[in-house]
Design a protein that fits this description.
Elements lengths: L1 H10 L3 H10 L4 H19 L6 E8 L5 E9 L2 H4 L2 H17 L20 E2 L2 E5 H12 L4 E9 L1
Antiparallel strand pairs: 1-2, 2-5, 3-4
Amino acid sequence: MDTIKELREETGLSFAQIKKALDEAAGDKDKAREILSQYSAAQAEKKSDREVEAGAVSAYVHSNGTTGVLLELACETDFVAKNEEFVALAKDLAMHVCAMAPTSVNNEDGLGDETSLLKQSFIKDPEVTVEGRIQAAIQKFGENIKVTKFTRYSI
């Protein structure tokens, strides 16, 4: 039960999904995390065609005052857009863009995965990519979520 509770706090997924993953992984917590990650990716793929017509704009300015970011994170409904965790995700992604300086959302500029926001390791948890973090949010909120654009300013 402690393992289920711990994974629930980490992922925000339902007890049933976590229990199913733990059963598949024969009680191995790390394998269960992998299974949950794969499940999140599959759910995100199913929702990727849905229209995103709401969202939040987040601003982040680094403490030295020389770098700042504006980031637009879109979702399907205003209900999710106003959720504290969604707003916090937008803020975390803006901070990530400030620190890691990606040049595109998903390699639209053709410069490679290292400059693509979605392919970078998430600054707050290097074990997961930004894309993986967004997929986990899609799983949690049950809506399509996309970074539609960002702008990074630096002096």
